[in-house]
Amino acid sequence: MENNVKFAPIRASIALLAVGGLALAGCATGSRGGDAATPSEDTELLQTTPEATAEADTVAWNSTYGELASLDPVKAFNYPENTIVSNLCEPLFEMQPDFSVQPNLATESNTDDGKTWVFGIRDDVTFWDGTPMTVDDVVYSIKRHLDPAEGSYWGGGVVANIAEVAATGENEVTITLQTPDYTLPSSLSTIIGVVVQQAQREAAGENYGNPEAGVMCTGPLKFTPGNWKQGQSITLERYDDYWDADGKAMAKEVSIGFVVDPTAIANGLSTGEIQGSYDVPLPALNQLGSSETGELYAGQGMQNMAIISTGEGVFGDPAVRRALTRATDRQAIADTVYEGTGTPARSVVPQSPWDAVEETSPGIADLRDEQLPDLSFDIEAAKAELEDAEVDLTQPIKIAYPSERSFYADILNEMANGAKELGITLEPTGVPSAQFGAFFSDPEARAGYDGFVTTNYLSAPDPLLHLISVAKTGSDQNYSGFSDPAVDAALDAAIGESDDAERAKLTVEAEALIMQEQPWVPINDLAVRMYMDESITGAPASFVYLYYPWAADLGATA
Q1: Is there a contact between 164 and 175 (Cβ–Cβ < 8 Å)?
Q2: Within 13 Å and on the Cβ side, how many CA atoms surround 80?
Q3: How many CA atoms lie within 13 A of 179 on its CB side?
Q4: Which of 14, 128, 249, 515 could be joined to 238 by an S-S link, Cβ 3.0–4.6 Å?
Q5: Gap between the Cα atoms of 407 and 401, Å rounded
Q6: pLDDT tens per residue across span 183-222
Q7: Which helix (H) or strand (E) holds 94?
Q8: Residue 22: what pLDDT?
């Protein structure tokens, strides 16, 4: 937890003050279905839950954010799509519950210069129809992201750096990049590395990914056309010939509903009508935290809540952003708005991925404590920061949020209280969700606003990739046009470094520069909120369910 002292050490812990009954434990192993650590008095967040001991016939799960739009992996860039596709379509590398990345459909990766990557490909994998997965399917799947006609949501960033993808052997694929990137295997644990069957994609045409045509993949659970009841649920069935015997699904089928109303979700989980859910709504925490028929888990997260600058108005001045961060009681937000399932953020990168880096690069936590600026709550320090502002402080700061999600108003009101202490005005402004979504894609939608809220997450567990996404000139989540040559140079140096430990140090240096400017104002790191009925167990508790086949680990408790 962040303390009100300079450069307070930070670790993967959380104060759970407002909600009783949250299951917590020390860090567990990252293996599929591994034993969860024994619950203890400390407050470390979970990575896994107790391993399932028996098969289950059917598990009823829920998608809190509603119904998916498509099963097409290249269109999976949000919670509803990724949470389901992760169980069906597999990547070359797989993110584990401890945030490590392991070979999956790929057997190995090799590079001499960070630009030319050679990947071994498994020769014992079949699609659900029994046909073998080939290197041609791998090449085709990655090239889909490069084809404008496919409309991949992953077409920028890492994909834009790909110069060529080719089969260079019977079980070998080579990816050539334009500039060195020693984090490529981590990116290939996301949708970028997912493999689909070329023949079925081409045969399905414009119907690909819809309820009638579906997809054809290699994962431990499969989709059968007709099992997606639009507006209600989608059912995934176990693929009995799955290539990895240790990763075979424990449940014969998993039915995932699309209930979004917090009260209906809480009631469904309490009665057992819904057996489990990630992203438990905040209003449901008190009810489920005291449940006698299930367990509410708090897991290591890769999510954070932040305010994104548009680069305009008073909030466009870095000194103002720094001042508002120091003037906002972010611990109060963690305790009240997030019911104790948040912790004040030290960076735009959540803490848990950095804890995973510490496992392979000891000393990184201390280095971050030395180099990152102090963001602790301190009104006098905030006033000192504001002295460097070069804008008209009499103008109000207009921050947009989706009006249907009232908890954002609570967060912004707390920030407005801090702004008032500084003699400036912050105006929370509700925008209908249908309109608010355009803030992330259309500069015109952001016109007239100084900033807007986000609950964001890392797509890959490498902190460097998220920093590039947020702060490099022209990157995909750089919504303010932020550009700093020193930041760009630091990020380029890090991604072009072959040694893991040295790359981690360079990443910290880049992170420190970014946090001095704060193109995003970080508010809270968020724990995973997951509930499971007492009849089931096994799902990972950490934030891997967008890219890891979490439903395959679900099974019965007896």
Answers
A1: yes
A2: 16
A3: 12
A4: 249
A5: 10
A6: 999 999 999 999 999 999 999 999 999 999 999 999 999 9
A7: strand 93-95
A8: 62
Q: How far apart are CA 430 and CA 409, in angstroms?
A: 8
The CB density around residue 123, as the number of other CB atoms within 10 Å, is 13
Tell me: pLDDT of 433 over 80: yes
Helix (H) or strand (E) run with residue 411 in it: helix 406-421
The pair of structure tokens assigned to 276 is 């489990």
pLDDT of residue 428: 98
pTM here is 0.90
Q: Which of 536, 30, 34, 48 is nearest to 298 (CA)?
A: 48
Query: 25, 36 in Cβ contact below 8 A?
Result: yes
SS3 state of residue 307 = strand
Residue 386 CB neighbours (<10 A)? 20
Q: How many CA atoms lie within 13 A of 72 on its CB side?
A: 24
Q: What percent of the chain has pLDDT over 90?
A: 89
DSSP string, 443-486: HHHHTT-SEEEEEEE-SSS-HHHHHHHHHSTT-TT-TT----HH
Q: Is the pLDDT of residue 327 over 70?
A: yes
Residue 108: CB atoms within 10 A of its CB come to 11
What three-state secondary structure class fits 422?
A: coil
Structure confidence at residue 367 (pLDDT): 97
- Secondary structure element (H or E) that encloses residue 371, with its range: helix 364-371
Q: Are 540 and 553 contacting, i.e. CB atoms less than 8 angstroms apart?
A: yes
Report helix, strand or coil for 162: strand
Distance of CA 176 to the CA centre of its chain: 27
What pLDDT, on a 0 to 100 scale, did the predictor assign at position 32? 34
What confidence score (pLDDT) does residue 43 get? 61
Positive/negative CA dihedral, 122, 302, 46, 557? negative
Query: What is residue 234's predicted lDDT score, i.e. its pLDDT?
Result: 98
pLDDT at 7 over 50: no
- Structure confidence at residue 21 (pLDDT): 53
Question: Which of 470, 547, 456, 453 is CA-nearest to residue 507?
Answer: 470
Distance CA 386, CA 140 (A): 53
Exposed, middle or buried: residue 273 (CB in 10 Å: 0-12, 13-18, 19+)?
Answer: middle
Does position 393 have pLDDT exceeding 70, yes or no? yes
Sequence-distant (≥ 6) Cβ neighbours of residue 262 within 8 angstroms? 281, 282, 283, 284
